[in-house]
Each structure stands twice: as C-alpha cells, then as structure tokens.
Design a protein that fits this description.
Elements lengths: L1 H5 L4 H15 L8 H6 L7 E3 L6 E3 L21
C-alpha cells in the first residue's frame, strides 16, 4: 500500500504519511528510531519484507552486472 499510494511523495510527505499510518492504523511497520527518522530521514519506504522470514529488512539495490557483450540498442538497465 505504501508504494502504490504514496510512492511519488517527497521525503517530507513520506514522513507525514508514515506518522499518519502509525497513528491511525496501528500498522505493523518496521521499528525506526526517532533519531534515524530525523537525521537520516528514514521511513517505511526504505524497507521491504524478506521472503525468507517475512520480517522487515532494509531495502538494498542489487548490484547491476553489465552483459559481456553490449549492444546499445538492446541494453536494458534496471532502475
């Protein structure tokens, strides 16, 4: 719901969205300390659910490995 509804929000709006969800829905969001939320601007948008243990984990971008033979017209870069 977070990404489908508020994925285009700017950081301040994302923080406001997270506060609203916590206050009104009592949703099981990741435990983010107030310090990290203020200094790092960390929100629920920085997390995903792990397939292995169904727990929250920090979202990490997988390393992109370029193909051995690059054909520019067929190049697809995941974003």
């Amino acid at each position: 719901m977070t990404w489908s509804f508020a994925g285009l929000f700017e950081i301040d709006d994302r923080m406001r969205f997270q506060r609203e969800i916590l206050e009104k829905c009592n949703a099981p969001l990741p435990n983010i300390s107030a310090a990290r939320a203020q200094t790092d601007k960390e929100t629920v948008f920085d997390y995903c659910v792990s397939y292995e243990n169904k727990a929250w984990k920090m979202w990490e971008v997988p390393e992109w490995v370029p193909p051995k033979r690059l054909i520019f017209s067929q190049l697809l870069i995941p974003t």
